[in-house]
Amino acid sequence: MRFIFVGLFILLIAGCVASKPQKELSTKAINSDLDCNTTLPLSCFTLGNKYRDGKGLERDYLKAVQAYELSCDVGFKPGCHNLGEMYYSGNGVKQDYVTAATYLNEACLSGYKWSCLRLASLYDRGYGVEKDVDKATALYNRACNKSFSEGCLTLGTRYYNGYYTQQGVEQDYDQAYLYYKIACEQGNGEGCHNLGILYALGKGVDRDKDKSSEYFHIACSLDYEPSCRKANHVGHIKKETTPFYLKQYVKIDYHEKAKNLEYFCKNKDAQACADLGALYIYGTGVIPSKKKAFYYFDHACLAGNARGCSGMAQHYSSGVFVPRDINKAASLFRSSCDENFYQGCVKLGELYETGVFGANDNKQAISLYKKACDGGFAYGCLTLGDIYKKDQVVTKQIALSREYWNKAITLHQASCEEGDAVSCSQLARQYRYFHRDTFNIQKAFDLFELACEGSYGYACNEVANMYRLSTTERRDLNKATHYYNQACTLGYSEGCYNLGYLKRVGLRVDQNYPEALIFYEKGCSGENRASCYDLARMYEEGEGTEKNTIKAKEYYTQACDLGHGYACNKSKSF
To answer: What DSSP designation does 43 have?
Structure first.
């Protein structure tokens, strides 16, 4: 049902809005006062934001409009979006819904999701365009398919209330439930709240007081205040004793640990080689390197070490540095599991569950997961918790599912208390999953920050993402930038990419092309394909540097080698 509007959207593209209108000369009357360069459209866009928001410059809506026009005219679609918003609101120009719709449509067709939502509202009400509820619905659906929760939320409400189409009024509580659930899973508190209402009223689902309360609690945790009142959680933030992860405890010095392991590995200690390989996989105490991990796992496995063989099995399973060989991977996972290295048991179980040997063997998979869980490997317990929550592999058993999840958390917590940054990070992930009883967003923040302090680049990147993407008052771009920088410094290439992206587009931070180039180069050298691709684009288009087609082709080729499909096409065009 989510995709029935594709045809409608194609029609929308074909003829929804007229061509760009002629702009009034008055809006460009004082362009000479604008300190931006149209060859760098981001600079004009950023300047427009400063004039619009009154940050760093005195608020001046007319100059904001002029700056957005300059960036839009040279094809920078966010500038077109903001220009459409100015015409929509009448700030700096005479309010004009027709012109607003034109600019919003231009940005929407380029994939700018906010523009699609605003344009949908215009079609809903017939402002500046002919009223067309079907086109509005297609636009909301497009936003939802792009993981934009506001689009999903709006669709849910339309199905809940019933909306007019060309065929009449359509009301569908099942579809309302679907879209509210998608919105909730994307972290939208109102979507979770509305799910609580559906369960309370028994609309689209069986009436379930416990489920209703569960979703109100989740929505309240996402700071959607009406749910806090529904769940009787007014003043729900209670003083608690200091969590264990904020107390003093032994911290592992991973840098020192890596040095010691390297010394013992050189002296033929197979376990030291395997443990060092794991450090290179996780990037704790060393710059992450799959190549070095492979080297140390190989040495350990040849000496008969179970952890080393499990590490080699993962390389054979994914085809990294060796030809992909599932049978070889399974054999190595099995031998490591037989030696009670429980990660090997879980990985072997996943092969049975996914049916890579033919028919799925869920019984064998569950047996392997249980062996790992009983042996104290938390991920085995988590996997069992997920299996018993669904009616897919086995009959759903909620109580048993919770039992396994709680055991996993207890195991992760014990390792985290001992200073294991990876376990702290894995524990944070469990608190971040809002569909679980353990959901606690503040604990997730605290634990990711703690793991980041333990030199775990992945955790730094994750907490940065949470600060950057949060829809609540927790959003903090300064902290996001700080943690992306830490992730990059620790060699986690995705952190370099994210920081480069923020610097390049000027997304709520000062736009800085030279710094963007530096971070993209670091990310690319760390085998991050998106960094290589964006770096190639900057050299191709001359963003912050001289145009250089040789370097552009080089980086497109690197991105292609790392699996970036579009980069492969680009590299062939030179």
So the answer is: H
Q: Structure tokens of 162?
A: 């019933």
Q: Which H/E stretch holds residue 45?
A: helix 41-53
Give the whole-angstrom CA distance, residue 551 versus residue 549. Answer: 5
Predicted TM-score of the model (pTM): 0.56
Q: Which of 306, 300, 298 is nearest to 273 (CA)?
A: 300
* Distance of alpha carbon 545 from the chain centroid: 29
Specify the DSSP element, H or E, that contains 168. Answer: strand 168-170
Q: State which amino acid sits at residue 514.
A: P
Find the distance separating the first CA and the last CA of the chain, reported in whole Å: 42
pLDDT of residue 168: 44
Task: Kindly tell me if the per-residue pLDDT of 210 is higher than 90.
Answer: no
Residues 6+ apart with CB under 8 A from 392: none
Question: Contact at 8 Å (CB) between 513 and 532?
Answer: no
- β strands within 197-310, DSSP E: none
Would you state the structure tokens that stand for residue 368, as one six-digit string? 């392997």
Contact (Cβ atoms closer than 8 angstroms) between residue 219 and residue 434: no
Q: pLDDT tens-digit profile of 403-437?
A: 888 888 888 888 887 778 888 999 999 888 766 66
Please name the residue that has the structure tokens 């995709």: 3
**Which of 282, 286, 292 is CA-nearest to residue 425?**
282
Cβ atoms 382, 369 nearer than 8 A: no
Query: What is the per-residue DSSP string for 299-355?
Result: HHHHTT-HHHHHHHHHHHHHTSSS---HHHHHHHHHHHHHTT-HHHHHHHHHHHHHT
Q: Does position 235 have pLDDT exceeding 50, yes or no?
A: no
Closest CA to 369 of 424, 408, 332, 317: 408
Closest to 540 (Cα-Cα) out of 531, 528, 548, 529? 548
Distance CA 197, CA 41 (A): 46
Candidates 504, 492, 438; CA nearest to 463 is 492
- Minimal CA–CA distance to 155: which of 134, 138, 179? 179
Residue with tokens 């709006």: 154
